[in-house]
């Protein structure tokens, strides 16, 4: 792949910046047949093409290329294999009413990707240029976006360290690539409530750690506890932290609980971004939408305009969850994330007993369903809100 150096005002060469205008597109000679949407499992089907660009500490970012999907060629000593400077994002493209693909608040993903790359000292890149490249890739692969409700094209931008040396040091080389995959509902049961096992003996993240960033190394330590939970009949883990057993995340999702107040309003609570919680895009969007409901700017479906949603980012302990459940005040709990949007929680295993949450005919309770309907309407362009839905021109 071609690489170039640029010169500063003094004529001195310095590493080239990421530049979307230099994009080279090499299309596949043969395109794959499109699978039946109902056969899609999350992340398993790959499209025809991928985007790739490499960073060299001397020459900088290479010429970006969209090329046929295929394996990467990496040195066995690459930093990504040895020390895990690997970061990624999760995004989706949706088919809009006009047939054009749309992204949901993509600049927020770019901002988080930058923070993640900085946390593991990967080479910097211009996220505005990367977003242009992603939009171009989505346009090239637009035939892969299913038009059925609940379906989308999942986008996985990834940056890995490729320094080919075993010395313990930051990687001065990198590979940035983007792959896309058509997908349907994350859980095959749709909005059926999921069961959780509350786990405190295994930590997903901790103060001063990397839980607030989207790093590959955050995920593998959760696989073994997840297997243990599955053996006990639970689908996901509710991660706890500290002696007071604060709830942090649900599997790889942010979590919300809704508590009924004496005045009929709801307290909508989610753990704070204290460095142990991933700053999820869906999480931030849910907070914004509950605040919009309170001001009357946007009324969530199924929620009375007069019912206030007192949203707060604050610690929530398992002792509080148990007490609210026993008092009949715990009316909803749900996980949120890009892959699933909103997933209702029906059962929480804690200290040998199950906390059973209210059962709703739609799976999701009124608040979760209102958020899900509003988010999905914005994502596909049926509802315009604050330029959250961005067309891939």
TrEMBL record:
InterPro entries: Aminotrans_IV, Aminotrans_IV_CS, Aminotransferase-like, B_amino_transII, BCAT-like_C, BCAT-like_N, BCAT_family. One of its GO terms (molecular function) is L-leucine-2-oxoglutarate transaminase activity. This is Branched-chain-amino-acid aminotransferase. The modification N6-(pyridoxal phosphate)lysine is found at residue 214. Belongs to the class-IV pyridoxal-phosphate-dependent aminotransferase family. One of its GO terms (biological process) is L-leucine biosynthetic process. GO terms for cellular component: mitochondrion. PANTHER family: BRANCHED-CHAIN-AMINO-ACID AMINOTRANSFERASE (PTHR11825:SF44), SUBGROUP IIII AMINOTRANSFERASE (PTHR11825). It catalyses: L-leucine + 2-oxoglutarate = 4-methyl-2-oxopentanoate + L-glutamate; L-valine + 2-oxoglutarate = 3-methyl-2-oxobutanoate + L-glutamate; L-isoleucine + 2-oxoglutarate = (S)-3-methyl-2-oxopentanoate + L-glutamate. Its EC number is 2.6.1.42. It holds the Pfam family Aminotran_4. Keywords: Amino-acid biosynthesis, Aminotransferase, Branched-chain amino acid biosynthesis, Pyridoxal phosphate, Transferase. Its cofactor is pyridoxal 5'-phosphate. It comes from the Eukaryota.
